[in-house]
Specification:
By secondary structure, the protein is mainly alpha-helical. 70% of the residues lie in helices and 0% in strands.
């Protein structure tokens, strides 16, 4: 393995992550899952992301997803599996991915030499991921690699995203932030989804959100206006630094040159995805 700085690893992650994340916001997502009988919104999201686990109940998903209200998860799981099996959901997941990537990038790009190269690099990086303590990564790693290059890249980017996410939850737990406190403190940085958007999407009531903010004020993490204090800003920096440290292994496995090239090639595809409105960036910020 080649030494890679956590900053280089994060830069590479940021380059390929939009390629993966646009799946959740594509119109094809809710449309395709609706054809299976899944309700738009939380049910479709939870089923699509949890399907690699199999027909699990709400406890597993609440633990692995960390910041969703347990009651929200319990309203939709395991009920979703009575509507569509995990196998059917996984098949639909690839159809969704094929549709939105072809729409945003075009068929020439999805079948290009650069796409195949990016997929090969990202899959090689994912070989450096570890399974212990990484439930979402491990469940996705048990799935077969799709043959089409753009689907193989999406699969690899999903592995890398869930590997980083699993490590992030370790960092949040070590920092003493429960799921809701993690959301509240992260939105205070201004670099995440807006508070109202996340509160609704994750199933938390205004009263629960306010109570979590008050707890963070009492701990000196937020000030009375809901802004991060110096202590709070340092706590969030420490969480991100720990996340970076826990996520460096796949990029060390890929090596410096491979990491640089994956950042370049996947980043080019992600820019096209973003320019095409693949992510609702208007929902990022403090207000």
């Amino acid at each position: 393995m080649t030494a890679i700085s956590p900053r280089e690893a994060r830069r590479c992650f940021n380059a390929h992550h939009p390629f993966h994340a646009a799946y959740y916001f594509s119109p094809e997502h809710d449309e395709t899952y609706a054809e299976l009988g899944l309700e738009s919104g939380p049910m479709a999201y939870l089923a699509g992301r949890a399907a690699p686990f199999g027909a699990v109940g709400p406890g597993v998903v609440t633990a692995a997803f960390y910041n969703f209200h347990p009651d929200l998860v319990a309203r939709h799981l395991p009920r979703a599996w009575d509507v569509a099996s995990p196998a059917a959901v996984l098949d639909a997941r690839l159809r969704i991915t094929d549709a939105y990537l072809t729409r945003l990038l075009g068929p020439e790009a999805t079948a290009s030499r650069e796409m195949a190269e990016a997929a090969e690099l990202a899959l090689h990086a994912a070989e450096g991921c570890g399974r212990p303590g990484r439930p979402l990564y491990s469940a996705n790693a048990d799935l077969p690699v799709p043959e089409a290059p753009h689907l193989a890249l999406w699969h690899a980017a999903t592995l890398l995203r869930e590997h980083r996410g699993d490590g992030h939850l370790v960092a949040l737990s070590e920092a003493g932030l429960d799921g809701l406190e993690a959301l509240v403190s992260h939105t205070a940085t201004g670099t995440n989804w807006r508070p109202g958007y996340l509160q609704s999407a994750r199933g938390w009531s205004p009263e629960e959100w306010t109570a979590a903010r008050e707890r963070l004020v009492e701990r000196g993490i937020l000030d009375a206006g809901g802004e991060l204090t110096d202590r709070g800003a340092e706590l969030r920096r420490a969480v991100e630094a720990d996340t970076d440290r826990l996520d460096v292994a796949p990029y060390e496995h890929l090596g410096a040159e491979g990491t640089r090239r994956l950042t370049e090639v996947a980043g080019a595809f992600s820019r096209v995805v973003l320019e095409g409105g693949g992510l609702p960036l208007q929902n990022i910020g403090k207000r």
